[in-house]
Amino acid sequence: MSATTEQLERNFTHRFLTSLRRINSPDSKTTTTHAAGLVIRRRSLRIKRAAYSSMARAAGSHRAWTRALLSRARSQRRRQQHDVHPNYIPPAQRRKSSVKRAAAAGREMGRAGKLRGLVPGGSRMEMGQLLEETAHYVQCLAVQVRVMQAVADHFSSSSSM
Amino acid sequence: MEPLSGPGARPGPTADETALDSVQFGDDIRHLISVPTENASSFTALLELPPNQAVELLHHRSPQSTRPDSRHQQPPQHFNAGLVTFPTNAALIERAAKFSVFAAEEELNNGSNAITSPDANSAPSSSSANLQKVVKAEPAEAASCPTVAAKDENQRPSSKRKEREKKGKASSKKSKSAANEDSEQLPYVHVRARRGQATDSHSLAERARREKINARMKLLQELVPGCNKQEKLWGNGGGGQWGVSSFLHLVTVFPLFARQISGTALVLDEIINHVQTLQQQVEVLSMKLAAVNPRLDFNLDNMLPADSGSLMDSNFPAMMMPVMWPEVQPNGNRQQYHQPLWNFDVVPQPPAGGWGREDGHNFMTPENSLLSYVSPADSASLNSSQSQLKMEL
């Protein structure tokens, strides 16, 4: 493991645990009206989003995919906060542009299009940059999975004690 | 000034080494230089012709080392100070090209050696600054492949400058790969491009781009496990794989180069697969964490890279608490439930027991809901809900 990977891991772990703490303790947002299964689901979604955000912040904003991820998270959060109603339909332009971009990524047939769909911000990059960002993204994903696994193991193991 | 010493000891560019005693150039240059003596204003001329001049200097210096001739001592002084608009760039380049025929590789090497020393000492600093700026670009290439400089100077100066102004990485890669090709051929190189490839700037740029992309693919292959077995056709250097059109039109090239492309396609498939796998793992782990979680005080600021070990260590004081909890809980029959549920059962107790955190109260509410769900239910129903969640995901 190189020095940058270690630093990334440390950074990510710190942020991730901080956000976990924030999620688990005083949630004013978790309503008790939902069934318990849904609570787990919503919490898992929140944890997943927190994991990606903290990884994007830990990796630094000189990478295009981190910027794209963070802006996506920000817009998602804004959308969540503003429209309380679950059946809210986003304004037409936003939908159109995202659909167009997705279609463009899908129209470019084959593997490259799929890869663009997977990597955040991939539809805007050209091929060379896409490959570079993919490499970095894969590295960061590996770190993320490792840390999350360790955290989950730790908590589940210590609960058995 | 002083007589020329061996190739190693080079005085500044103002001194003798400007190769006016070279076979072809000597008379021309002397004639040219004698006109503007110590003309400082010709710096602008210098600026206009950096590549030319570098070329000249390259070849001027090198023969100095091999043919020490103290014939032209005084004009060389002015060479850098008052430099000159050369009459015809093209004519001189041709000369330089011809000269390169005689300049075998060692001379170019000497030339590159010579270039580094003038960087240290030169009287007219600005001219030397220009020279350094220009000449440094040359040694970068000359050091790696001596034949490249000869190749480069054959191109027109404008195109060469344009290409150098492109990402230097691309140009050096391009020249390196071209040099690799050329080294198989004869030493005196007039080859302008790779064999059977066009030289216009478009195709050169495309080639550079393709090579950049292939280099990145190789890096990716190393990252993604399981790609190394597909060694199919990377040895070609990827030059022939992509169609003339842009890389994005991968599909159009598939039928033509089916056998060759399959290597890259497989690699891309592997990469996509790997990314999808990782993302799925994140999903699963986040769900696991959501199920396991709300227990401890996450006081883990001092994290070491070895996660599992350090998690244990730094969390030790916090772990005292959960150890106490199972003793506190009233219902022994809770233990039959699914393991993660322990946490839900256990949690409401310590806040009541005065955990000391201000958010201890709020812990009750979500967990109470879970508890109320859990108590009438069976572990079976909970399992079904979890499997249901998995299906949704």
TrEMBL record, chain A:
Keywords: Nucleus, Transcription, Transcription regulation
Subcellular location: Nucleus
Keyword Lyase recorded: no
GO cellular component, one term: nucleus
Location of the region described as Disordered in the Swiss-Prot/TrEMBL record: 77-97
Short name of any one Pfam family annotated for the protein: IBH1_N
TM segment ranges: none
Ranges where the IBH1-like N-terminal domain occurs: 7-76
InterPro entries in the cross-refs: bHLH_AtIBH1-like, IBH1-like, IBH1_N
GO biological process, one term: regulation of DNA-templated transcription
Protein name (database record): IBH1-like N-terminal domain-containing protein
TrEMBL record, chain B:
UniProt-recorded name of the protein: BHLH domain-containing protein
Regions of compositional bias (Low complexity) in chain numbering: 117-130
Start-end of Basic and acidic residues biased regions: 150-168
Main location as per UniProt: nucleus
Keyword Iron: no
Cited SMART domains: HLH
Keywords, alphabetical: Nucleus, Transcription, Transcription regulation
Compositional bias segments (type: Polar residues): 63-77
GO MF term set: DNA-binding transcription factor activity; protein dimerization activity
Origin superkingdom: Eukaryota
Coiled-coil segments: none
Domain BHLH: 197-278
